[in-house]
Amino acid sequence: MPITSVTSDPAALTLTVVADYPVPVERLWEAYSDPRQIERFWGPEQWPATFTRHDMAVGGWSHYFMTGPDGQKSRGWWRYLAVEPLRRIEVEDGFADEKGEPNPAMPSMRMVFGFSATKSGSRFESVTFFPSLEAMEQLVKMGMMEGMRSAMGQIDALLADLASFAASRATEAQILGDTQVRISRVIRGSVQDVWRAHHDAKLMQRWLLGPDGWTMPVCEIATKVGDRYRYEWEAADGSQRFGFEGELLESAAPYRAVTSEAMIGMEGPGTRNEMTLVAVPGGTLLSIVITYPSKEVRDMVLGTGMTGGMETSYARLERELLAA
User: Fold this and answer.
1) Do residues 194 and 284 make contact, with C-beta atoms less than 8 angstroms apart?
2) pLDDT tens digits for 76-99?
3) Which residues pair with 91 in a beta bridge?
4) Helix count (H) and strand count (E) of the chain?
5) In whole angstroms, what separates CA 65 from the centre of its chain?
6) What is each CA distance from 253 to 256, 276, 277, in whole angstroms?
7) pLDDT at 165
8) What's the pTM?
9) Do domains 3-165 and 172-323 have the same CATH topology?
10) Stretches in the chain below the pLDDT threshold 50
């Protein structure tokens, strides 16, 4: 059990949790910066968490839901106020409604996560600041302390699991819900370099090719919100051609871009793609949450071997960055 102490101070309106781990600070930080990892322990044992957004940068947001044994969902959010790599994260923390929006009927809190090295590994300190004594009492009665103990009791196994999240692993697809999939891959390069690789047309035409044997003759990039983009690929022998187009819906360089996407010539709704870049010890964790119009479309696209094609492109991107 990693928790060293839990201290409640009604006068200061704070709850402090201290935990010690036999791993370097870098490994502990990675567990909080990677949505695949934090959802392995953030929810209590009987209420596992799923993160549908995790922009760990100042001004960014995390959206998550916890699913109970009977399928009931409890939703929450974080808004990032400060991010100091390997040292400190500060967030505003609150409850969300069914649409994932902040629930004004429930209190929000400020949480500061501290990371520091120790002789035996690393220490994590979480300080929660409540807006009032009433809010503090309400949340404690709702089982906040028990939930934190249960959640943090799961982190030891995660920290010991190095293979599942190694930077050398290939692109992976994780189903988040009936219409959502998260694509994850650690790219050996800086956040700035990976962002540039998605916004430099000449560079994209060298790596965003999928399987060998394809070219990218059209690469029209959207540079500001509201702009349209268009990408087209052609087989090297000229026998096949296809493409996608869409609109840049949100942009927060260099860590988040949201686009719509539809196949050229196909009718019907397309997808919403949310790309997030987060610095991790192995490089840059690239995550893309794709929202499909239906479960059937989701399954059909996954069945095309999309993930394998993306892995070929990302491996090519790594070679470009390492050769630069």
Assistant:
1) yes
2) 999 999 999 999 999 999 999 988
3) 80, 111
4) 9, 16
5) 13
6) 6, 10, 9
7) 81
8) 0.90
9) yes
10) none
